[in-house]
Amino acid sequence: MSDAFPVWDPRQYNRFEAQRDRAALDLLLRLPEDFAPAEVWDLGCGTGQHAALLKRRHPAAHVHGLDASATMLDQARALSVEVDWVIGDIAAWSPARPADLLFANASLQWLPGHEALFRRLAENLAPRGVLAVQMPQSWDTQHHRLMRKTVAEGPWAYLFETATARVQVMTAEAYYDVLSPLCDDIDIWATTYLHVLSGDDAVLEWMKGTALRPYLTVLADDPPMREAFLKALGERLSAAFPRRTDGATLLPFPRLFLVAQRR
Ligand SMILES: C[S@@+](CC[C@H](N)C(=O)[O-])C[C@H]1O[C@@H](n2cnc3c(N)ncnc32)[C@H](O)[C@@H]1O
């Protein structure tokens, strides 16, 4: 894949697997009952847990897991031989057959142009096919504000000009407006989870698995600069997210969910 993609680290990402999984499972609960999809895609499948789960739930379906990261897909391949694991860019993806389920958990926030993207995803659904998406609404959270401030203020700032920036997701109403010409039964909701994290520098460690990937990719060949950047951000995060008396760190994390069915 092209250098434009950040390098992912499956071990770091899955350090907080229980918390990260929670939203995906909440999304899966909203799929229609008596749903029997034949063509299923998990877009941005990462280490593959949800594609593998969908294959177990719908054994007769063709389940495909698409991701741009070879390292994430290596883990996914070890999880299931029954899923068709595909390396590729969601921006360039189009299925050979219309999809009955397009599932995208915590991946589409990495892509720009959501109006066109969501229209295209809906257009690739079979009649009565379902689009199910969860995206962090992290732009305005304290930990993302501190990340952007640290990115912009240090001696590393000029290096980050080429880093893949996370996009600000649209409003719930804007997703409704894009999908309503093509879909009905549109269900959109938002939830803020209070993630209870354990360990030292827990919010920094959480971010090292996801939001910081583009910056850590840029700094991969400059360990002193990488350490200085992480130290500066870590100090701000520790002050903003003090440990509780039991040692836990609490991370409020808003997420937007969307389930829509193609007419
Ligand atoms: C936060 S992880 C989520 C992984 C998985 N869906 C989960 O819920 O555990 C985001 C994933 O999206 C993938 N990704 C980001 N942008 C992508 C793109 N344009 N095309 C394909 N995959 C992409 C990354 O490689 C990464 O594995």
What do these coordinates show?
With 263 residues, the protein is an alpha/beta fold. It has one domain (10-262): Vaccinia Virus protein VP39 (Rossmann fold), CATH 3.40.50.150. The protein has helices at 10-13, 17-29, 49-57, 70-79, 114-123, 142-153, 172-179, 202-209, 213-218, 223-240; strands at 39-43, 62-67, 84-87, 99-105, 125-136, 183-197, 249-262. The longest helix is centred in the last third of the chain and has 18 residues, at 223-240. The radius of gyration is 19 Å and the shape is globular. Bound molecules: S-adenosylmethionine.
- Under CATH, the homologous superfamily reads Vaccinia Virus protein VP39
Q: What oligomeric state do these chains adopt?
A: single chain
The rough form would be described as globular
Question: Which hetero compounds are present in the coordinates?
Answer: S-adenosylmethionine
Q: Helix segment count?
A: 10
The beta-strand count equals: 7
Q: Which CATH first-tier class would you pick?
A: Alpha Beta
Q: Strand order within the widest sheet?
A: 3-2-1-4-5-7-6
CATH architecture name = 3-Layer(aba) Sandwich
Alpha-beta content class: alpha/beta
What is the helix/strand order?
HHEHEHEEHEHHEHHHE
Amount of beta strand: 15-25%
Main beta sheet strand tally, sense and closure: 7 strands, mixed
Radius of gyration: 19 Å
The CATH topology name reads: Rossmann fold
